[in-house]
Structures are given as structure tokens and as C-alpha cells.
Design goal:
Strand content: 35-45%
Number of helices: 2
CATH class of the domain at 33-45 and 61-157: Mainly Beta
Protein name: Peptidase C-terminal archaeal/bacterial domain-containing protein
Number of strands: 10
Structural class: alpha+beta
Strand order of the largest sheet: 1-2-8-5
């Protein structure tokens, strides 16, 4: 009886390890794109603007500061029919670490995102945020910036 139980336990353990390995390889294959129920976070190297899209994608940057364990909130209004927007949290000093969460117009949260969430560790989190439906839900999207590991005061733009 003891031998049967240990054999069953070993078989279950092998199956669990196999499932974990399969899940990990599937996650690595799609690591560059973060899809999360109604929003897609696609890493980009540099925001690409065109004259035709400047009204929809125009972004003005202000410089903010943050300290260790401090939270700052930023809102961005998304008009009806908007296909997406560039989410660009840039602090430049990769020795410090900021965390980002995104809250959609309906209040749902996405993230957390860290420096390497876009595939690079460069003191910047840069995504093209879009929807599988083709347009984002209109309303105000909030961005929560958290001083996860900050020495002194860190300047950033978003």
C-alpha cells in the first residue's frame, strides 16, 4: 500500500513538473507581448508619431519626482475611437526601480510592470497600449507609479 502511494505521488510530481515546464516555455515564447483581458501592452523601442496621428497620440511630458515607497498617480484621458496610446515611464537611472500599474476607464488594474517588463533594463517602461477590439474604451486611464527601490529622489516623466 505504501509503495502504491509513493508511486502515485511520484507520477503526480512528474506531471506537475511537465506542466510547469510547458507553461514556462509558452510564457517565454510570448514574453514580448503582455496580453491581459481587453488590453495589450506591446513593447516598443521608440514611440512612432506621424502627422496624421498626432492628435490621437500626442503626449506632453512633465517631470515628476518620487522617493522610496512613495506613490504618485497620473491620469490620461482616452477619447472615443482611440486605437491606443504610448505608455512611457522614463526615469533613466536603472539603479533605481519604479513599479507601474495601469487602471483602465472601468477601474480594472493591469500590472505590475517593472523596468524589465518591456524586455529591457534601462530605467524605462515603454509600451504601446491597445485593445484586441481595435479601440480602447473611452475614459480616464490612471497610472500608479511607485518608488519600489529608490535611493534619494528620482526624477521621471510619464
Amino acid at each position: 500500500m505504501l509503495l502504491k502511494r509513493s508511486t502515485i505521488l511520484i507520477v503526480l510530481l512528474v506531471l506537475l513538473v511537465g506542466l510547469t515546464a510547458t507553461s514556462a516555455s509558452a510564457a517565454n515564447a510570448n514574453a514580448n507581448k503582455k496580453v491581459s483581458a481587453d488590453l495589450v501592452f506591446t513593447p516598443v523601442e521608440t514611440p512612432q508619431f506621424s502627422a496624421a496621428s498626432s492628435q490621437v497620440y500626442a503626449t506632453a511630458y512633465s517631470v515628476y519626482t518620487i522617493k522610496f515607497l512613495q506613490t504618485n498617480w497620473h491620469g490620461k484621458y482616452i477619447p472615443s475611437g482611440c486605437p491606443g496610446y504610448y505608455l512611457d515611464l522614463n526615469w533613466g537611472n536603472s539603479a533605481n526601480s519604479l513599479r507601474l500599474r495601469v487602471y483602465g476607464a472601468d477601474g480594472r488594474a493591469w500590472g505590475p510592470f517593472y523596468d524589465n517588463s518591456d524586455g529591457r533594463s534601462d530605467g524605462r517602461i515603454l509600451f504601446w497600449v491597445s485593445s484586441p477590439s481595435g479601440t480602447l474604451a473611452p475614459g480616464t486611464y490612471y497610472h500608479e507609479v511607485f518608488g519600489y527601490c529608490v535611493s534619494g529622489t528620482e526624477d521621471y516623466t510619464i
